[in-house]
């Protein structure tokens, strides 16, 4: 009995254990069977949904192949679905039900960075690319969806380019710009005046016989007035002031001596409106200061003051800047005080600057003095004069030539034009980049052989043209320095002055007439006046100007198109110095009355506003992505009508930036 009862108890325990295991195992087993069954159903749904997804993608490509206009018409962030009519797909509004599935298409804009790469944010909208997201979803056995992203682009990318003279001439140059044909077609700053042609000088339009019989070799000119001095011998007046009339074209100017000053041999002269400064060979008054306030009854000016440089020597050059005077004599450069012009003027830097050789000509621009010397290894010396009491040499530049003679420096200080002594085997005229003291700027940009003439004077006029004067061969030579790197620089004109030319200066008068004043060895007419200007093909430069291109019509560029998306703008430019610049803006608009002629153009930059422009980082190229706008007001992209605007800036009337070509890429 006992054993029988024990077996029954064991059986009950085993039964209870089996029931517990069943309660745990069978629900899991049933769930596994259920999930397996439902997962298989999901897979079947997914397999059915994918072809619907692919079909929608192919529908989008089919729509794109029919033309970009329809793709461009669909709005961003609006739901569409594919719709088939015959063999051509289109998109209809809203999502669609395909059996137990829902299918939709939604567009969004594509952003690109400056390198053209697609970015999720922060870029510029690309009007020639659209992002379409296709979605197919279902609800049973579980809510699920599959998606695909399609990028649709315009297949055609056309480029419109202005590069020839004929193309640029279709634009608007009325705002101080001009089209030239330097190398096929370019746009530059326009003419500021002048009625002659620097490259076709006539011997003279007026002459002046300076008093006495001395040979004049010093000249300085300002509007309506010039000064001349005798330095080659003591037979002439030390200084003669000449008044020049400035009648309107075609009446020639006249020149008369208004007063003189005597007692010194003059090597250089510098004039202001009320004072003149003579560099003399008198040891106790190397610089003589003359008051031009009036003359005595004999037509003589009087001394106002003077500067006595240390030691015994002659002054070769003199210049003033503000209340400071600068004198070069022998191998020294000195500065002196001009806060007053009377009496003995005190020296500011007693030590001055010691030059590597005898200084010949002195020019001051900004905080630098430029001095030519007769050294064959350092023809140009540049001195920092920012502190007139502590002058310091900052640069010495050697040229493949003999000793330096004369120099002209442009208004920005970025170019020095130097002449050297005549050499049978070397050139005598050089353009030097003096924009910076950095080694990369110490370079000769261009040079010219004066062909036997021994230069002693140089000036640069608008155009730009350099005029070199001297003795022997052709004494007055005009050089085209538009292309600074030309080797050699081309001669564009000249004249013979058999008595020799000893100096030159030029003036652009307020009425637009331009003259060069030449001091010669002609004892009966030492001063000769030659009229200059841009000529028929010349170039004078305003300090700023604007060029608007011709108006382009997209329907004339791509047959069958009604508008185009504008992708990029680019240009090839030339900037002679870092201070000259060109920037671009772009305008696109809808036609007015079916024509682009009266379209309302709004010029914009990279941000889509008129506050910005496309600029150059290297001075040679401009490139950028054109912004997209489709609000129906002002600037539009895509649009049918378009043009560009170029703005030019220069601080120096002898330098102009140049636009060689402008290109715009567009997709109909």
Summarize the structure.
By secondary structure, the chain is mainly beta.
Largest beta-sheet characterization: 7 strands, antiparallel
- CATH class category name of the largest domain: Mainly Beta
Beta strand count: 47
Number of domains: 3
CATH superfamily of the largest domain: YVTN repeat-like/Quinoprotein amine dehydrogenase
Tell me what the CATH architecture of the largest domain is: 7 Propeller
Helix content percent band: 10-25%
Radius of gyration: 41 Å
Strand content: 35-45%
Overall mean pLDDT: 87
What is the 3D shape? elongated
User: What gap, in angstroms, lies between the N and C termini?
Assistant: 105 Å
The SS-based structural class is mainly beta
Number of helices: 4
CATH topology of the largest domain: Methylamine Dehydrogenase, Chain H
Unreliable stretches? 1-6, 28-36
What does this structure look like?
The chain has 668 residues and is mainly β. It has three domains: 31-153; 158-190 and 543-667, Jelly Rolls; 206-233 and 249-335 and 352-532, YVTN repeat-like/Quinoprotein amine dehydrogenase (Methylamine Dehydrogenase, Chain H), CATH 2.130.10.10. Helices cover 12% and strands 43% of the residues. It is built from four helices and 47 strands. The strands form eleven sheets. Strands 1, 2, 3, 4, 5, 6 and 7 form a seven-stranded antiparallel sheet that branches. A hairpin with a 7-residue loop joins β28 and β29. It starts with a helix and ends with a strand.
């Amino acid at each position: 009995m006992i054993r029988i009862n024990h077996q029954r108890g064991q059986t009950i325990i085993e039964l209870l254990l089996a029931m517990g295991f069943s309660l745990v195992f069978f629900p899991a087993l049933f769930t596994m069977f259920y999930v397996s069954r439902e997962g298989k159903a999901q897979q079947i749904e997914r397999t059915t949904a994918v072809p619907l997804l692919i079909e929608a993608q192919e529908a989008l490509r089919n729509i794109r192949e029919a033309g970009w206009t329809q793709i461009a018409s669909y709005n961003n962030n609006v739901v569409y679905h594919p719709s088939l009519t015959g063999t051509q797909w289109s998109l209809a509004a809203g999502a669609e039900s395909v059996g137990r599935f829902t299918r939709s298409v939604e567009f969004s804009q594509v952003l690109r960075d400056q390198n053209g790469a697609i970015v999720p944010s922060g870029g510029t909208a690309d009007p020639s690319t659209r992002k379409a997201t296709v979605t197919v979803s279902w609800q049973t056995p579980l809510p699920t969806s599959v998606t695909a992203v399609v990028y649709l682009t315009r297949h055609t990318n056309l480029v419109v380019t202005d590069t020839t003279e004929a193309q640029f001439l279709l634009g608007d140059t009325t705002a101080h710009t001009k089209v030239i044909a330097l190398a096929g077609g370019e746009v530059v700053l326009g003419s500021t005046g002048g009625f002659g042609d620097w490259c076709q000088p006539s011997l003279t339009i007026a002459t002046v016989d300076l008093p006495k019989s001395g040979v004049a070799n010093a000249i300085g000119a300002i509007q309506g007035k010039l000064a001349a001095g005798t330095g080659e011998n003591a037979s002439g007046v030390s200084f003669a002031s000449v008044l020049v009339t400035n009648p309107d074209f075609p009446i020639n100017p006249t020149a008369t001596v208004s007063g003189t000053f005597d007692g010194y041999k003059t090597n250089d002269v510098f004039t202001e409106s009320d004072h003149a400064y003579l560099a003399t060979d008198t040891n106790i008054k190397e610089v003589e200061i003359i008051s031009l306030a009036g003359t005595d009854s004999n037509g003589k000016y009087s001394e106002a003051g003077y500067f006595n440089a240390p030691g015994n020597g002659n002054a070769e050059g003199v210049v003033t800047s503000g209340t400071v005077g600068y004198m070069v004599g022998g191998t020294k450069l000195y500065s002196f005080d001009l806060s007053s012009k009377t009496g003995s003027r005190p020296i500011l830097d007693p030590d001055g600057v010691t030059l590597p050789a005898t200084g010949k000509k002195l020019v001051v621009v900004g905080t630098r003095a430029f001095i030519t010397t007769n050294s064959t290894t350092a023809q140009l010396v540049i001195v920092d004069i920012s502190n007139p009491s502590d002058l310091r040499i900052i640069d010495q530049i050697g040229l493949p030539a003999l000793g330096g003679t004369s120099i002209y420096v442009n208004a920005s200080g970025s170019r020095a034009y130097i002449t050297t002594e005549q050499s049978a085997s070397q050139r005598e005229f050089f353009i030097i980049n003096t924009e910076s003291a950095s080694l990369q700027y110490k370079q000769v940009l261009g040079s010219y052989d004066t062909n036997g003439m021994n230069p002693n004077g140089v000036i640069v006029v608008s155009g730009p043209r350099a005029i070199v004067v001297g003795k022997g061969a052709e004494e007055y030579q005009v050089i085209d320095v538009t292309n600074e790197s030309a080797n050699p620089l081309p001669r564009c004109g000249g004249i013979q002055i058999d008595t020799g030319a000893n100096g030159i200066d030029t003036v652009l008068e307020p009425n637009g007439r331009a003259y060069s004043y030449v001091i010669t060895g002609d004892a009966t007419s030492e001063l000769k006046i030659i009229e200059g200007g841009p000529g028929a093909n010349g170039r004078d430069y305003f300090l700023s100007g604007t060029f608007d291109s011709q108006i382009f019509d997209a329907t004339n560029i791509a047959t069958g198109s009604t508008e185009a998306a504008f992708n990029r703008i680019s240009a090839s430019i030339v900037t002679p110095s870092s201070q000259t610049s060109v920037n671009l803006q772009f305008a696109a608009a809808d036609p007015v009355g079916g024509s682009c002629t009266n379209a309302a153009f709004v010029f914009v930059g990279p941000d889509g506003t008129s506050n910005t422009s496309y600029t150059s980082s290297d001075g040679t190229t401009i490139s950028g992505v054109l912004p997209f706008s489709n609000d129906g007001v002002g600037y539009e992209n895509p649009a049918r009508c378009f043009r560009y605007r170029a703005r030019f800036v220069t601080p120096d009337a002898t330098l102009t930036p140049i636009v060689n070509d402008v290109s715009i890429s567009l997709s109909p």
